[in-house]
Design a protein that fits this description.
The strands form 2 sheets. Strands 3-4-5-6-7-8-9-10 form an 8-stranded parallel beta sheet. It has a two-stranded antiparallel ribbon with strand order 1-2. It contains 13 helices and 10 strands. Helix 1 crosses helix 12, helix 4 runs parallel beside helix 5 and helix 7 packs parallel to helix 8. The protein is of the alpha/beta class.
């Protein structure tokens, strides 16, 4: 079953459970039932090693997907999308000043939803200079409409030593709860490895998927050994072109996997070092498909190897 066929198959169910959307920050019994019916139980979670706080295995990325003109129509659309994310068990929203109007859009959506208590707020500092970093992070708080972040990450290692000093102080003051560092597209792995090996951090964010598995060799084992939570960005990264119109392997269907999106996400989140993945989408049907990957069984080590072999046959 491909992504299009799957989203058609759940359209009637999700229409009944998710519409109409009245913006609210409370989950009614009906809302909770919607997630349970769609995902058959509670969404799976992992604990952040440094704090013990649990977060769902699927988060919400905001690179490109919600960087839109801030029109009433777009704000309404994005608010409905994010409300659906919360109703299906999500908590982590990840953003960055790099992502156009995404932080502004998040702020409008959270205000419309009366700032859901489930929110795990995550963004990044992406500039050079100590004071410039402070100003950028405070601007992110203003745009989101919040006074502190659950996680602040240093984006793509930019001026990381300077920003880390600020974040250590902010963590002591309770302005940020967790501190992290990020990279993507396979960049700066050697430098990142040195940082992870020597600098105490709560989180690292990096690119990982069934095709791009370079981080399996050193970075993921190192993060696991050091007790650093791992957020995976770009879990799809062009993969749908390989699996278009291809049938899912039978062994994955037996695990309850019903789409290639779930195949790709379950591969990522089943790695022992991975805490969560943050796929980005602007479509509610794809969001619901993604969230389903966080429910049910995860593949074991043997099945993960079969998944790699199955994907290689598609290339």
């Amino acid at each position: 079953m491909n992504r299009r066929q799957f989203t058609k198959s759940i359209s009637l169910l999700t229409a009944a459970t998710m519409a109409p959307l009245a913006f609210s920050n409370t989950k009614s019994k009906k809302d909770l039932a919607a997630g349970a019916v769609l995902g058959k139980g509670n969404i799976l979670t992992n604990k952040i090693p440094s704090s013990g706080q649990s977060i769902p295995l699927i988060g919400f990325g905001t690179s490109r997907n919600i960087s839109l003109d801030l029109t009433p129509e777009n704000i309404t659309k994005c608010t409905a999308l994010i409300e659906t994310f919360f109703k299906l068990g999500g908590t982590m929203i990840d953003s960055s000043p790099m992502y156009g109007t995404s932080e502004q859009m998040i702020g409008h959506c959270l205000k419309n939803l009366d700032y859901p208590k489930e929110l795990f707020s995550t963004t990044k500092v992406w500039t050079r200079g100590k004071q410039e970093g402070i100003e950028q992070m405070r601007q992110s708080m203003k745009l989101w409409g919040i006074k502190k972040f659950d996680l602040m990450q240093i984006h793509n290692l930019v001026d990381w030593q300077l920003h880390l000093d600020t974040l250590r102080n902010w963590q002591e003051e309770g302005i940020v709860k967790h501190i992290g560092i990020t990279t993507s597209h396979g960049r700066s792995h050697a430098e990142l490895e040195k940082i992870l090996a020597t600098v105490p951090l709560d989180f690292v964010q990096l690119t990982y998927n069934v095709k791009d598995r370079a981080v399996e060799n050193r970075l993921l084992p190192l993060a696991l050994d050091r007790g650093i939570a791992v957020i995976v960005n770009r879990p799809f990264n062009g993969l749908f072109g390989y699996s278009k119109n291809q049938e899912l392997p039978e062994y994955m269907q037996e695990l309850g996997c019903k789409s290639w999106a779930q195949f790709y996400l379950k591969f990522v989140i089943s790695h022992p070092a991975v805490t969560c993945a943050i796929p980005a989408t602007s479509k509610a049907k794809h969001l619901k498909d993604n969230m389903l990957a966080g429910y049910g069984e995860l593949p074991d080590k043997k099945t993960r190897q079969l998944m790699v072999e199955s994907f290689k046959k598609l290339i």
